[in-house]
Amino acid sequence: MDGEPGFQEDIGESVSHHQTVAELGEQRLLALLQSYGDPEAIGDDAAVLPIASGHSLVVTTDVLVEDVHFSDRTTPPHSVGWRAAAANLSDLAAMGATGIGITVALSLPPDCPVAWIQQVYQGIKDCLHPYRLSIVGGDVSNSRIRSLAITALGQVSPGHQIRRDCACPGDAIVVTGSHGGSRAGLELLLDTDQSLLLGEAWRSQLIQLHQYPSPRLDCVTCLNRLHQADVLTDLEIHIAGMDSSDGLADAVLQLCRASGTGAVIQGEKIPIPEALHHWQTPQRAMEWALYGGEDFELVLCMPPQAAQHFCAAWPAATIVGFVTVEPSVYVDCSNTAVSTGAEGNLPDLLLTLDRGFQHFKP
Amino acid sequence: MDGEPGFQEDIGESVSHHQTVAELGEQRLLALLQSYGDPEAIGDDAAVLPIASGHSLVVTTDVLVEDVHFSDRTTPPHSVGWRAAAANLSDLAAMGATGIGITVALSLPPDCPVAWIQQVYQGIKDCLHPYRLSIVGGDVSNSRIRSLAITALGQVSPGHQIRRDCACPGDAIVVTGSHGGSRAGLELLLDTDQSLLLGEAWRSQLIQLHQYPSPRLDCVTCLNRLHQADVLTDLEIHIAGMDSSDGLADAVLQLCRASGTGAVIQGEKIPIPEALHHWQTPQRAMEWALYGGEDFELVLCMPPQAAQHFCAAWPAATIVGFVTVEPSVYVDCSNTAVSTGAEGNLPDLLLTLDRGFQHFKP
Prior knowledge:
The structure is a homodimer of 362-residue chains.
Chain A: H1 21-24, H2 26-34, E1 47-49, E2 56-65, H3 77-94, E3 98-108, H4 114-128, E4 135-142, E5 147-156, E6 172-175, H5 181-190, H6 192-195, H7 200-211, H8 219-228, E7 240-243, H9 248-259, E8 262-266, H10 274-279, H11 282-291, E9 298-302, H12 304-313, E10 318-324, E11 329-332, H13 336-340, E12 349-350
Parallel strand pairs in A: 3-4, 8-11
Antiparallel strand pairs in A: 2-5, 3-5, 6-9, 6-10, 7-9, 8-10, 11-12
C-alpha cells in the first residue's frame, strides 16, 4: 500500500455503498484501504515497524480464495476478513509469538462492490483490535476472482518459541478450548433446514464459532509466564504445540510425528460445545471435534505440573490426554457414555493423517 | 508453508514435468515448495528470523495475477518468479532497507503443471541469490486463476530510512540506471513482427530488461556509506527516494508531491538503453523512459555533493535534474538533439500523474 499523500482526507465517508471498484478508481481504493491501516506504520514503499531487542521476527502467510475458503453463502464479508486475520494470528500464537501487525494483499474483479471490501477490512480490523494490532501494509490487484493473502508478523524471544518436535512421553496434552463448533456452524450455514432442529441460541452460538473464531494469541502471555514462573524454576519446561486449524486429530498427529512419539486422548475429556451435543449424535460430535478443523485453538504438550498451572491460569484449557512412547495416536472412548449422556460408550479410535483437511484432495 | 517432517526427502528429483498439481497432491506440493526455501528459517507454523539489534522491520507486499501482471505470451514462468521477487526487493531498496527474506502465497488451479511452479520458484530463488536471501515461508491454495502474493521482509537502521517527503529545492535528482527498456522489451514480446526490425543482440537486451530487471538492493550499501562518509560529515545528509516501478515520471511526481517541491529534469541526461535508440523515434524512447514503468531503478534526491559521491561509487547512476521550489515538474528537452542524434530537439514536457500506470483504469 504505497503512500498516497494527496489522498489523506477521510475517504470512508465519501464512498457510496453501491459503488464498484472500477467506479471508485485505483487511487481512491488505495486511499480507502489505507484508512483501515495504521498511519504510523504505513511507510512510503513499505511499512517500518519496531521490534523488541533480542527478539526474533516471526512471519506467516495464508491465502484465502473465493469459493475455496469462503463464499457469500456461508461467510459475510466482515467474517471473511475476521477469519483471514484469525487464521494468521493463530499461526503466530502456535509459535509462542506476540503480534506486530499484518499486511493484506487483495485481488478483486472490477465489479466488486466497494461495500464488500469495506466490510472485509472492518472484519480484519475488528479481529486485530483486542491484540492492539493493525494493518501495516498491503497491495491490491485486478483479478477475475476475489482473494486475500494475509501475512502476519510477530516476535518471539528465542527461549519462548513453541516447536512441534519437542513433545516428550509423559507430557500432558492440553487444548485451549472446545472443538467441533466451527464445523457444526458451517453445516448449519450450508443446510438451513438443519437449523430448524436447533433453538436459535444454540444455532447462533455454533455459527458464531464458525464465522468469528478467537485466535489464541491471548494465551501467549500465559505461556510465557509459565516459562518464568518461580514454582517451576526447578523443572525443565518445554512446550510443544501447534494450532488446531486443520483439526484436533491433525494437530496431535503432527506433534507426535515431529516428536517421534504417540498419544492417548481421553475421548470424554475433549471439550465440545454444548450446542453440538443438543443437535448431533455423540459419534458425529466426536468426528467433528477431531476432524472438523478451523477451531483455531492451541494444542500443547507440556509436563503435567506445567499443564496444571496453565489450566489454572487459562480456565478454558483442558488436559485431554498424554504423550506416549508407543508411536500410534489413540482416542480412548471407554468413559464417553457418561460425558455424552448416551447409553453406551463410543468405540475407541485410531487416528490417521489421511482424514485431515486437504485442499487438493479429489 | 507449514512443516511437514515426513516429507524431508529431496522431492525435486521424483516429480515428473508433465504432472499437474492435482496429480502431485497437496502434501507433496508443499514438500516440493519447501525444497526451494531456507530449511533453517522455515518453522513449524511460521518462519522465525533474526533481526539486527536497533534495526526496524520493513515489510512490503505485492500481488501478481495471471493475465494482469503476467501471461504465458510475454513471461515464461522463471521470469514470473524473478519479476515478482524483484518488485518486492525494489520496494525494500526504496526504503533504504537490506533484505531478510520473502514469503510466497501461491494460488493455482488443480490442472497447473508442476513444472510451471518449479520454474516460478527457481526464478524467485535466482533473483534472491545475489543478495543471499531466501524464501522463508508461504502458502498454497486452490484457485481458478494463478496468482502470487509475495511479502518481502527487510531491516533498516532508523537513521538510514529513505523517505519520499524530504526532497529539498537544490537537491540533485539521481537515477540508478536506464529507463524505458522494460517497456521496450514488453512491446517486442507482444509484437514479434517488430522484433524483425531490430538485430538479435539489441532485441535480447531489451527483452532481458523486461523479463529480468535487477532490483537495486545492491545500491543500499552504497547509500548507507554516504551517510557514514567522512567527507560528508559536515553536511546534513538527507536522501529522499522511491523506485521507478510505476515509471520515472511517476517517481519524480510522487517525490515532489510528498515533499511539496517541483523539479526540472534535463531530458538529454535520462539514461535510455542504446538498443531503444536503434529501434524507436526519440519521442517514443522518451515516452517509454518516462512512463513505461517496471525498470525498478531508484530515483533519489540528495544534496549535489552527496550525489556526486554516489555517482562515483555507483557507475550506472546519473544526475538527471534538480529539485525546485516551483511545484511543477518539467522535462527540459533543449539539448536532446545531440543526445538522440535527431535533427531537432524534442518539445519540453510538463509531467502529470494521470499518465501513470493504473490497474483499474477503464
